[in-house]
Structures are given as C-alpha cells and as structure tokens.
Amino acid sequence: MIFPLPFSLLFFFFFFLCFPSFSLASNVTYDHRSLIIDGQRKLLISASIHYPRSVPAMWPGLIATAKEGGIDVIETYVFWNGHELSPGNYYFGGRYDLVKFVKIVQQAGLYLILRIGPFVAAEWNFGGVPVWLHYVPGTVFRTDNEPFKVHMKNFTTFIVNLMRQEKFFASQGGPIILAQVENEYGDIERVYGDGGKPYAMWAAKMAVSQDIGVPWIMCQQYDAPDPVINTCNSFYCDQFTPNSVNKPKIWTENWPGWFKTFGARNPHRPPEDVAFSVARFFQKGGSLQNYYMYHGGTNFGRTAGGPFITTSYDYDAPIDEYGLARLPKWSHLKELHKAIKLCEHALLHGEPTLLSLGPLQEAHKYADSKGACAAFIANMDEENDKVVVFQNISYNLPAWSVSILPDCKNVAYNTAKVGSQTSSIEMIPEKLHSSMMSADRGSKNLQWDVYVEKAGVWQGADFVMDSLVDHINTTKDSTDYLWYTISLEVDQTEKFLSEGRHPTLMVESKGHALLAFVNQELQASASGNGSDSKFKFESPIPLKAGKNEIALLSMTVGLQNAGPFYESVGAGLTSVKIVGLNNGTLDLSSKTWTYKIGLEGEHLNIYKMDGLNNVKWISTSDPPKNQPLTWYKAVVDPPSGDDPVGLDMIHMGKGQAWLNGEAIGRYWPRTSSIHDECPPTCNYRGKFTPNKCSTGCGEPTQRWYHVPRSWFRSSGNILVIFEEKGGDPTKISFSRRLVTSICGLVSEDYPTSDFETWDKNTKYNDETKPILHLICPKNTLISSVKFASFGTPSGTCGSYVKGSCDHPNSISVVEKICLNKNECAIALSGENFSKDICPGLTKKLAVEVACS
Fold it and tell me: Which of 35, 122, 25 is nearest to 72 (CA)?
C-alpha cells in the first residue's frame, strides 16, 4: 500500500527544490579552542571588505576572489554616519546597501562577521559616528554619557533588528557568526577616567541583551566581560592570550599593509611577513584570523578621515583598490590557507607539544588520539637561515619563516618561499574624448565648460563675528570649506606703498589647509601634514591704498577618526596678523570677520545631474589653467574595454571630482619628501612597521583616483572637477588598470603548491617537484615569453637577469608549454630541464610572459 505524503512534508521538499540556498539554523558557541558551529570546532580565515568602500557592482567579484583565495568569512564594519543621516533618518541605498552585501556573502556560501561598533575608527570620517551627534546637547562620545549611549543603543538595535528581519544571524540560518560592539577601546579606557570602564561594561551588556544567538566580540578590550570574547588587532598576534581560559584566540585585524596620507610615502608589507604572522598565529593556538584589509577599496567623496587620509584605501591588500588580485600576495596567502586547512583537524582536536629546536627556533606538534598530526616549525631569527632536526628529520628554515607540515613529516609550505606568480600592473592612459562633440566646432580638443567662484562672500554673508570661529563647529562638516573675510583700510601714508615693498600676512591655523586671497587674487596656500594639521605661514601680500579685502579659505581634509575625545578636535584659523605697517603689527584676530559656509557651486549643486544648469558656464576648448576656485565640466566617453579605471590628476592642484553626480573623492597630488627613506629592496625579515618598506619618495602619494566602471554610461558622461588652487585640466586623463605581464620564480627547494595531492590516502613524496604556475587575466592569453632562465637567475619581475648557470633551452621549453594559453604549469623536472647543469647548486626557474 502507498501512503500519500503529508502536505507539510511535500511543502518542505518543494521549498528545498525551489530555494536551494536555504540553510537550517546554526548553533554558534565557543570553547577555549575555537568557535563551535553546529557542534564542530572551526578554524576560520576571514577577510575585511567594507561595502561602502566599493560599489555594489563590484561586490560579487570581490567576494568570489576572496573565496577563491581560501577565505571562509567576510568581515565588515557597519558605518553609522553613512546610514543615519540625521536622527532617525536612515539610508541603505547604493554603496550603503548592507542587506544586499550580506546576501551576496550568503549566496557565496561564506560566513560573515558584523562589526557594528558603532564607532569604527577605520580611517573613516569622524570614526563613523555621525557629526550631528556631537551637537546633541550634553553629548560626549565613548564614555558613560547618557545622550551618547541612548543614540548608540538605538542604532545598534536598529541594525540588529534589520539583520534579524532578514534572518541573517546564523541562529536563523544566515551567515553572521559573530558581531562586534565598540572598537579598540581598551587602550584609551583609562583616559576617560571614571566614565571609561563603566561605559565598556555597559556596551558589552547592551550588546548581549540583543539576544542575536551568536557570540559578541570586543577587539583590544582587555577587560571584556563574559560571555563577550576579547580579540587582538596588530601586525602580529601570536603572543596574544584571551582574558579567560574559556575563550578562543581570535585575531580581528591582521594588517597586510597600511593606509596612506597625502604627502607621505606609500607603505608596503611583504607577503612573506604577512604569511609568517598568520602561520605563527595558528601555530600558537589561534583559531580565527581576519585580514584588515583584504580589499581596502576607496574613500569615495568626503568619507576619508584622518585628517589627510588619501582617497585611495588600497592598504596594500591582497585584492587591490580596483578589485584585481595583488600578486604574489594574494596567491602566496592562498597557498598558506590551503596548507593551514590541511592541519585543521589536528590543530583543533590535538594536544600541542612545544619543542625547542634552538635559541630562536621552535616547533609545535599537534596530535590527536586518532592519529592526526600536524606541525609548525618556526625560525624567528631575523638574519640567519637554520637547519633544524625535528623527529629525526632535518629541515632547512629560511630566516623569519615558518614551515607547515600537515602530516608532521613533509613540508607543504614555507612562509618565506614565494612560489606563486607576480603580476606587473600598469595604468595605461587614454586622453579624455567625447563622441558628443559637434562637428562644426572645428576643434579636436575636448570642449570644457568653466565656472569661476568668487573669493570670499557670495550671495550675502552667513554671519559676522568679532573673532575667529572654529571651522568644524561652524560647518558641522556639511562642506570642506569655510570663508573668513575681512576688510582692511590702508592709509596712503603707509611707508610700504612708497618703498615698493609688501607687508607680511601671518596666519596660524588648526588645520587643515588654507588659501589666502587679497582683492580676489590668490596670494598663498598652506597646509598641515598627515600627523599634525596645525600650521603657520607667512606671505607678503600686495595691499593697496584704500579698501582691501582679505579672504581666507579654510579647508578640511577629513575629520579626526580616533583617539580620546577626538570629536572635540577643532580646525580653522586661530590667529591672523599683518606685519610691516607704520604702527608695527596689526592683529586682525579679534576684528570683525564675515563668514560664508561652503562654495557657491556646492550650494547650487552644480556637480549633480539635476543642478548642472544652475550657473552660467562658459564653454571653451582652451580652458583656463592654474586658476583657483574653478569648476570644470566636460562630456566624456568611457575608456575602452572593461578594465578598471582611474582618473589621472597629476597635473591638477587640489580639489574634488565627480562623474555623473557620483563623488569620486578628494584629489591632491601632494608629493612626499625626497628626504624620506625608500629602500630599493625590501627585506621581509624582522618585525614590520608602516615605514619599513616604503616606495614613492619625492612622488605624489596618490596620482590616480578610482572611478568604478558601473558609474559610466555608454556615452555622454558628465565629469565635473572643482579645482581649489590651480591646475591644467587639459592634461586630465582616464587610465585603464591592466596586467601587462606576469612573472614566476620557483626554486628546487620550494615545497610544491599542488595541494590537490593531499588527501586521506596520498601524501607528498620525495619525487614531487615544485611547479611554476602562470595564469593571465580572464580573456587574455600568454602572447610572448619575455624572459626565462632555469639555473641561477636573479632580480625581480620586470628586471630578471641570467646568472652564471643557465639552461640553454629555457625559453623554448616555456614557449612550448605556455604560448597561446591562458594558464600553464611548468614543473622543475628532468623531463623539462636536464639535471646535469650546475651540479651541487639549488636551481631556480624565473619566467616573465606578456598577456594580451
């Protein structure tokens, strides 16, 4: 007899057929060793990707590239000031579509860590807290202060309820396995005195009361109360110990690079050192590690904090600002993740044994009762390679490296041996052009529309004050700009008029930058720097007999984003004097000043699509150059192809840019000092600091500004530039970011990266040979072999040279295997390269190929 299925069961089967991505609720807990998901301990590798620092069209690709790189978890902050634009006025569109971002993570089959904060720091404007909150009466940020706590709890609860409504918590079947409250508070808790610790404890209790069904974390919070887990942020966290023996060891921020400030060098962290730090963390009992950042992205518009944080937030991350995998960092870490995952069971269930192998050498062996065994052997010596003996086998350890042995015998990976390919990426310029130009204009030059701002007051004063006001308290960050204007009557008897000299204007400012105009003419510009926005400057000014107008444009370059009481740090002028008059020095600081907030073009929204015609533009094919306070507008076509795009602003001064109303960001091709140290090569060995491996000394900190492809139309794109101090718009260009060549360097003593040979029944053996893998970008092929040498080559990608030992058929071997293919693999085997050359030497294969 056949019994019909109950309707409820039929519905259940139908639901799973129609909605295959549906997942059952997961129980997330933890013990001393790791997070436990549905009863299983988990070793997790996480990647920070901040949704507002890219665009929705990029999110699927970024998350897919992270997953391909061996990532289990995506981590993001929640950016309060991007969501709550005014009290109770919420926004979740465009780059701030948090729900869409989480859904993409979920669809990719990855977990998610939601760092609600809601203070985030993150080199983000005002630390992510809305500026309006500073002006709520009685509010002091991040302390035991009722107004702040009320708004903080309201926002946290709003986000939690939004995530709960979408069933995003793991307890509901969603991807969120951890949530964070507050951020890096432990280091400044004491500064807040009696309000510090009570606030931290309140934040933890408030978070736990949300009852989200997954654990909460607090990074750098040394006194985080149970059940909240305290976590580590640093370049190295292997020595970190949680504040309870019942909590797992979690690393929320491993910095694979560093951020940039306008006028500073470009910091880089070598992939060998990043890998070393990760391997050491898991070797010493770590269970969850997060790269901050894995994709840094872009501080679009005015979102950069600092002050002076660049628009680029590339962070030397494994995925670069434009969405391309940074090689070899991305691939070297991918191989690391594979090796660590091979050790997962032994690491999470085995008992560790520490073995000293020398003064700076040690091994950790993890073995369980069922025979699983994994080992990590570390050489912490910063200078010397070492040979160590572990379980009666000798291992050669490069300085500052960790070898991973998933079976306690064979080396699957060494952090210092980079066998993965390197890519050479160039910005290929394309001159701005437009297909909408009229044929009768008779010029091949791009047509520009120009509008020039008046220096000082426009459309009437906002207010008048007999003192210098604070910039931020006046603008409340509604704009970067505040005009300080004063009239000065000069008597005909002033000696400087007849002596042919000029008096001197002396200004002191709390930051961040300044333009000084006298009678509508720019006389001087000045600014602070990335570490101190305060500055002084002196400049002769051409005063005339009679009435003179001095207009000083104060400019901010991102608000403070961290530090105790950071919300009270001001900006703007603090002293204005004129020296060289008959009566000596004239102090204008307490005289009558006229104030105007912002620019006329801003007020009229002439950078937005619906405000373009709010002023009378002057059309020309020869726009004015080196002219301050100038708006430029042009209709442009997108660059060819589908490669990522950057706007080259090397010939401009300082300002902001928009495309089709979307804010590209602040541009400022400010150069770093030629006296800074930029080593020709970077030694990965030893503790890393942000200034260790810098490049770009004497060059602009940022030349190109990311313009997402999704912002372009097929034609008729409106590019708007506001230039503050003067530049040459005719030299502005788009550049396509292209991988022009790829390189690989692998040695005979490198562990093979063919991890597919590791499974329950097979292990590496002595016959396994290292393999050099090369892969060109999608839709391109290896078109030529620029360099190939098996022997003793030296140098780096783009500058390889043959050594004294060189296999004569190196190029032909590589051409035979690789030409006209998207990817290829070259084994260092006798079949490809005879073994009779250079006896006794450890040989290498170095290859550079072109992709087209």
Answer: 35
Is there a single domain that holds both residue 353 and residue 333? no
Q: Please tell me whether residues 263 and 159 are part of one structural domain.
A: yes
Peptide bond into 163 cis (omega under 30): no
Does 2 map to a domain? Answer: no
pLDDT digit string, tens, across residues 271-313: 999 999 999 999 999 999 999 999 999 999 999 999 999 999 9
Copy the structure tokens of residue 304: 């950069």
- Do 305 and 439 belong to one domain? no
Query: Distance between CA atoms of 486 and 573, rounded to whole angstroms?
Result: 13
Model confidence at 21: pLDDT above 80: no
Last residue of a domain, one of 596, 616, 645: 596
Place of tokens 């090369």: 774
On whether both 122 and 270 belong to a single domain, the answer is yes
At 530 the pLDDT is 72
DSSP 256: S
- The helix (run of H) or strand (run of E) holding residue 589 is none
- CATH number of the domain where residue 139 is located: 3.20.20.80
Same domain, 270 and 148: yes
Clarify whether 166 is annotated catalytic. Answer: no
Q: Which residues contact 341 (CB under 8 A, 6 or more apart)?
A: 43, 70
Question: Does residue 316 sit in the same domain as residue 440?
Answer: no
Full domain range(s) for residue 198 = 40-343
Cβ-Cβ contacts under 8 Å for 484 (sequence gap 6 or more) = 468, 551, 552, 553, 554, 572, 573, 576, 593, 595
What is the tally of structural domains in the chain?
5
Cis check: omega of the bond before 638, within 30 degrees of 0: no
> Quick check: is 184 catalytic?
yes
CATH of the domain at 429: 2.60.120
CA-nearest of 327, 339, 336 to 374 is: 339
Of the residues 189, 253, 567, 724, only one is catalytic, namely 253
| Averaged pLDDT, 379-393 | 97
Task: Flag whether 439 is in a domain.
Answer: yes
Residue whose C-alpha is closest to residue 719's, from 677, 639, 777, 662? 662
Residue 572 has pLDDT above 70, yes or no: yes
Which of 182, 184, 272, 567 is flagged as catalytic?
184
The reply to whether 479 and 500 lie within a common domain is: yes
- C-alpha distances out from residue 87 to 81, 130, 141, 153, 223, Å: 10, 9, 16, 13, 32
pLDDT at 533: 84
640 exposure class (CB count in 10 Å sphere: 0-12, 13-18, 19+): exposed
pLDDT band at 159 (very low <50, low <70, confident <90, very high): very high
CATH code, 409: 2.60.40
The residue-averaged pLDDT of 455-473 equals 97
